[in-house]
Design brief:
The structure holds two protein chains of two kinds.
Chain A (H helix, E strand, L loop, with lengths): L1 H30 L17 E4 L5 E3 L7 E7 L4 H19 L2 E7 L4 H11 L5 E3 L4 H5 L7 E5 L5 E6 L7 H7 L3
Parallel strand pairs in A: 3-4, 4-5
Antiparallel strand pairs in A: 1-2, 1-5, 3-6, 6-7
Chain B lengths: L1 E2 L6 E2 L7 H9 L18 H10 L1 H17 L15 H18 L9 H30 L7 H5 L3 E5 L4 H10 L3 E5 L2 E6 L6 H18 L6 E9 L3 E3 L7 E12 L5 H10 L4 E12 L12 E9 L4 E3 L2 E21 L5 E7 L6 E3 L5 E8 L2 E4 L2 E4 L8 E7 L4 E7 L3 E3 L9 E18 L1 H21 L3 E7 L5 E7 L3 H19 L2
Antiparallel strand pairs in B: 1-2, 3-23, 4-5, 5-22, 6-21, 7-8, 8-9, 9-10, 11-12, 12-13, 12-21, 14-15, 15-18, 16-17, 18-19, 19-20, 22-23
Helix pairs in contact in B: 2-5, 3-5, 5-8, 7-11, 8-10
Classes of the chains: A alpha/beta, B alpha+beta.
Chain lengths: 178, 514
């Protein structure tokens, strides 16, 4: 009789534990909805290839192994993005010497728009066009701007969704200097 | 004074049973064969208490009622997923439904079905169904499996159908029972005839179905079982389907809107009333591309899977996904044409592609247009012009028009052309435009549907099993004085059992005459 009671207790414990696990999993899934798809620090940065608007050359992330890369997503019609561009322009030459490449991926459809923007702001660092939004999708970017700091080994060191705090840019860039 | 039919003691004339037997009868629960449910035991741990809570049908009903009320609450106003795309929930609910809408949104009822507390309710309901079933099924199963053929006289006299019989050939009655599809077992001179015991499992089968439905709802939380993406694709454009790990691409080859014929007398009145063409159906010719290892930004590595046509209510299947035609936009410009006049009055047109405009246009009347700036979706922001999106919904161009000597800068949009010098020397105006369509496709993968379906089928099976058959038992007991006692029990429709048993006896008596 005692062993029966014990078995009954264990069965009840088992059933209740399974139910609790299901409920906790559901709760966890709900809390993380949408969040889970965002890239996070430590993950491998998805590779991409895009055309450099200026030079017409292919810009492939995996070709830059051994260098730190800042990837910024922007568009000419995005106000906070516009403010970041001159800051990147200023930082680009200094960090290029330290083997850190800055690249800005535009969501604009027309290259003319990007070119005119480049002329107006006098930008010289690589501007890339992501017409089909494939790279944006790969990086799970749904709002502009977004900035990814990628280490020399291809892993993400930091992600910034939304505007960058300009004064922190150097600190973040120093983190990805190889 | 009369005899109590159960214990044969004396009882009051007015009562059916003596007070002692009456009390026993009240507490007699045939549902579980008079056996105590396991959760009703004496000594309890925390686990036992939790178990006891969920094993209670009353608690289960409370949970069910609360769940039903909550589910109903979510249908009062549209859920957030169904409000017009692009609208801000807070503003939408407040402006459309006033204070009630504001409160509805504030309390999170606009996302009710994915709220944590609704999930908890479903979880509690699942626990209640599962535990209440376990707590009842196993004791009942054992009790029925191990039931004795010989029963105590008091047990038999408690039954709803009791007859004293003076029969000489019980085997003839048994034969009648067998003909009525009773399964008859014998122990000594006692018989137990039983049929449709499986009907007792109906509620438990039904509960398995319910649990499967709840499981399917749970599985919807996992992207590998359920995925729902939406893509806007312009004519001729290839788009990656979000959340497919860059493995599925769709090209919009051509989007076609079919409108109701305005010349048809059947529709002309209604169309006039509406003041615009009414779409009959819309269709997109699509190409599906699949890749294993896609390099984002690369187009060349796409493998064509199939060409398909998807229209409203006619979804297509490809690569494990179902693609639905679910929206369209017709308001994008693909090109604008401006007309210019030179000094001699000769005209020439500039057709500017909004997707990929040239930087310079050499015109036939000797003029030259240089594109200075382009705003795909312009708006005036104070004194300056800004574009609010990348889509050419309201394109505007800043051009320098020159004949070699005079250069004039104009701001040209479809509805107005403004010269910055104020002269509009070349009388520029928009004369024509072309539009392109944008198709809205919803790409879904839902492996939970088969689970829902299976759950539904099992649910119905359980319902039918429990509703259309009745578990009937007849005990034939030889008493000490040589007479027989026939007792019958059914879990429902007692009158039918009574009728059946009476007919059995009737047949026996007729048969006995031979």
């Amino acid at each position: 009789m005692d062993s029966l009671k014990k078995r009954r207790f264990l069965i009840r414990l088992f059933v209740l534990t399974v139910l609790a696990c299901v409920l906790l999993t559901a709760g966890w899934k709900l809390l993380n909805e949408g969040k889970s798809q965002k890239l996070e620090a430590g993950e491998k940065a998805p590779d991409f290839v895009l055309e450099n608007i200026q030079t017409g050359e292919k810009f492939k992330l995996s070709d830059l192994k051994g260098k730190g890369v800042l990837v910024n997503f922007w568009a000419t019609y995005c106000e906070p993005c516009k403010q970041e561009m001159p800051v990147f322009e200023e930082a680009a030459p200094t960090y290029e010497k330290q083997n850190v490449i800055l690249a800005a991926i535009s969501a604009d459809q027309s290259s003319l728009v990007i070119n005119r923007f480049r002329d107006r702001y006098d930008l010289s660092f690589p501007l890339l066009q992501d017409n089909g939004n494939q790279v944006m999708e790969a990086y799970s970017v749904d709002a502009l701007p977004a900035t990814f700091f990628i280490r020399a080994d291809g892993t993400i060191s930091r992600t910034v969704y939304g505007p960058l705090q300009i004064e922190k840019l150097e600190k973040y860039l120093d983190e990805i200097v190889p | 004074m009369q005899q109590c039919p159960v214990c044969k003691k004396e009882k009051q004339q007015s009562e059916k049973f003596c007070s002692q037997c009456e009390e026993q009868r009240k507490n007699w629960d045939m549902r579980y064969e008079g056996a105590l449910r396991r959760s009703q035991q004496q000594k309890r741990t925390v686990i036992d208490n939790v178990w006891r809570f969920f094993s209670s049908v009353r608690n289960g009903m409370y949970i069910l009622i609360v769940t039903l009320l909550a589910t109903a609450l979510g249908t009062i106003l549209p859920q957030r997923a169904y409000i017009p795309p692009g609208s801000i929930p807070q503003e939408f609910y407040a402006s459309q439904y006033g204070l009630f809408g504001r409160a509805y949104h504030y309390l999170g009822f606009d996302m009710l079905y994915s709220s944590w507390w609704y999930m908890i309710l479903l979880g509690l309901l699942g626990a209640s169904i599962l535990i209440a079933s376990i707590d009842r099924f196993f004791p009942l199963y054992r009790a029925l499996k191990k039931q004795p053929i010989k029963r105590r006289i008091s047990f038999l006299r408690q039954q709803k159908y009791v007859r004293e019989l003076e029969i000489t050939a019980p085997e003839l009655l048994v034969k009648e029972m067998r003909e009525k599809r009773y399964h008859v077992r014998q122990d000594g001179e006692d018989f137990l005839a039983e049929k449709n015991r499986f009907a007792r499992w109906g509620p438990y089968v039904n509960h398995i179905g319910l649990l499967l439905i709840l499981t399917a709802a749970f599985l919807r939380l996992f992207p590998s079982f359920y995925q729902d993406s939406f893509v806007w694709i312009r004519d001729g454009e290839t788009a990656v389907v979000p959340n497919t790990n860059q493995s599925l691409f769709i090209k919009n080859e051509r989007f076609i809107v079919d409108t109701y014929n305005a010349d048809d007398p059947k529709f002309s009145e209604a169309i006039k009333l509406e003041g615009r063409n009414i779409p009959k159906s819309f269709t997109t010719n699509i190409s599906i591309f699949q890749t294993e290892k896609h390099l984002a930004g690369e187009m060349a590595d796409l493998d064509l899977l199939s060409h398909l046509q998807v229209s409203v209510n006619h979804p297509v299947r490809a690569a494990g996904y179902t693609i639905y035609q679910s929206g369209y936009q017709l308001n994008e410009f693909s090109s604008l044409t401006f007309r210019t006049f030179n000094e001699d009055g000769q005209t020439a047109d500039i057709k500017i592609d909004t997707q990929d405009p040239n930087t310079e246009y050499q015109l036939e009347n000797g003029l030259r247009a240089v594109l200075i700036d382009y705003y795909p979706d312009y708006q005036l922001d104070g004194d300056s012009v800004v574009t609010v999106s990348k889509f050419p919904r309201n394109p505007a161009f800043v051009m320098d028009i020159t004949d070699g000597e005079h250069t004039e800068r104009v701001f040209a949009a479809v509805d107005e052309v403004v010269s910055e010098t104020g002269s509009n020397r070349y009388s520029i105006s928009a004369v024509d435009y072309e539009t392109h369509h944008v198709t809205g496709l919803s790409v879904k993968r839902d492996w939970t549907l088969p689970v829902f379906l299976l759950g539904g089928i099992i649910f119905m099976m359980g319902l039918i099993q429990g509703l259309y058959w009745q578990h009937r038992r007849l005990w034939l007991h030889k008493q000490q004085d040589g007479t027989y006692l026939l007792a019958g029990y059914t879990n429902k429709h007692t009158s039918s059992l009574e009728k059946e048993a009476d007919r059995l006896l009737d047949n026996y008596r007729k048969g006995g005459r031979y």
